[in-house]
């Protein structure tokens, strides 16, 4: 494995996914995907179901070997590096499924994650970090003494984040971090992401809550059928015709007036993980709508009409 930093003073992205291809038999799950995630920024990776987001995350974190292409982290080629080496270099990940130890308390789950990350030092001098301060930071201090298998799903997601932060990662890979959070918890979570980025960490997030994505991300990459079809700011992504086609099945050529709010009538949800806020007037299929204007976490926008 080449492990060289680029020569000269060229800008080096925190994470670089370089034309990655992943094939499962005849299925091309990721198709020449190329994008970066920068330090100090929240980057969104979005796309319809089956677009290849989780497979990309698996390649980045080392769980899936790519058929072709490279992953560079902090300027070094880590394509062949095992998960634990990437973690040591500063890559932390949360999963869609919850990974905490159910029989341990919330506090002990974070303590164990911290000690494991420190390796031998963690075994010799466990619990050196202020775990309670970390629980407080992610907003779950009141659950510190509860067993992890007894807490609500949204809280368990925040526990996953606390476990990830216990390793003090430079890059956080967050897979569906807001699922299970209510609206106010999601707002707080968005603020926390901005704080973490302000500390200089990079955050790459797969997320279906478009309000959150549009509200907190500096940059968004859109995957469709394994390829990046658009990259840009939330404003760029919102008006990109290729994104509108991939998500909405229409582009600007189709008048937005043909869309009506889901509040207008009964709807049938077909893609439950996307925001079911718009519906074509003559069908009962819910269409996910990207919020129409920039939104802060505390400032939700009305859907595009
Ligand atoms: N281990 C596997 N074997 C075969 N096909 C797979 C495997 N993992 C994923 N796929 C296929 O690869 C494609 C991309 O899947 P992936 O889970 O990465 O998409 P996704 O964008 O994360 O989807 P979702 O939003 O539903 O989680 C899909 O067609 C999926 O069925």
Description:
Keywords: ATP-binding, Nucleotide-binding, Transport. It comes from Nocardioides marmotae. This is ATP-binding cassette domain-containing protein. InterPro entries: AAA+_ATPase, ABC_AA/LPS_Transport, ABC_transporter-like_ATP-bd, BCA_ABC_TP_C, P-loop_NTPase. The protein has 305 residues and is of the alpha/beta class. Helices cover 30% and strands 22% of the residues. It contains ten helices and 13 strands. Strands 6-7-8-3-9-10 form a six-stranded mixed beta sheet, with helices on both faces. Strands 2-1-4-5 form a four-stranded antiparallel beta sheet, with helices on one face. Helix 3 (106-118) runs parallel beside helix 6 and helix 5 (131-138) packs across helix 6. The longest helix is centred in the middle third of the chain and has 16 residues, at 183-198. The model is unreliable at 253-289 and 292-305 (pLDDT under 50). The structure holds adenosine-5'-triphosphate. Adenosine-5'-triphosphate (ATP) binds next to strand 2 and helix 1.
């Amino acid at each position: 494995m080449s492990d060289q930093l680029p020569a000269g003073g060229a800008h080096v992205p925190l994470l670089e996914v370089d034309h990655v291809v992943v094939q499962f038999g005849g299925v091309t799950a990721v198709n020449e995907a190329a994008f970066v995630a920068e330090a100090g920024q929240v980057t969104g990776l979005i796309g319809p179901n089956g677009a290849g987001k989780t497979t990309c995350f698996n390649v980045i974190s080392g769980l899936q070997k790519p058929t072709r292409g490279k992953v560079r982290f902090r300027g070094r080629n880590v394509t062949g590096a095992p998960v634990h080496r990437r973690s040591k270099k500063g890559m932390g990940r949360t999963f869609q499924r919850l990974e905490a130890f159910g029989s341990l308390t919330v506090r002990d789950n974070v303590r164990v994650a911290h000690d494991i990350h420190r390796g031998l030092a963690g075994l010799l001098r466990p619990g050196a970090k202020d775990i309670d301060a970390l629980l407080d930071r992610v907003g779950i201090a009141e659950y510190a003494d509860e067993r992890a298998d007894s807490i609500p799903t949204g809280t368990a997601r925040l526990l996953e984040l606390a476990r990830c932060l216990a390793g003090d990662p430079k890059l956080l890979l967050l897979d569906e971090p807001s699922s299970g959070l209510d609206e106010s918890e999601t707002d707080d979570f968005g603020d926390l992401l901005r704080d973490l980025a302000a500390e200089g960490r990079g955050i790459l997030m797969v997320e279906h809550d478009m309000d959150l994505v549009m509200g907190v991300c500096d940059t968004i990459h859109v995957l469709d059928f394994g390829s990046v079809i658009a990259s840009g700011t939330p404003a760029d992504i919102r008006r990109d015709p290729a994104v509108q086609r991939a998500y909405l099945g229409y582009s600007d050529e189709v008048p937005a007036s043909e869309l009506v709010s889901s509040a207008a009538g009964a709807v049938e949800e077909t893609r439950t993980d996307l925001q079911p806020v718009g519906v074509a007037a003559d069908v009962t299929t819910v269409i996910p709508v990207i919020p129409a204007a920039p939104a802060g976490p505390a400032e939700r926008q009305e859907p595009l009409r």
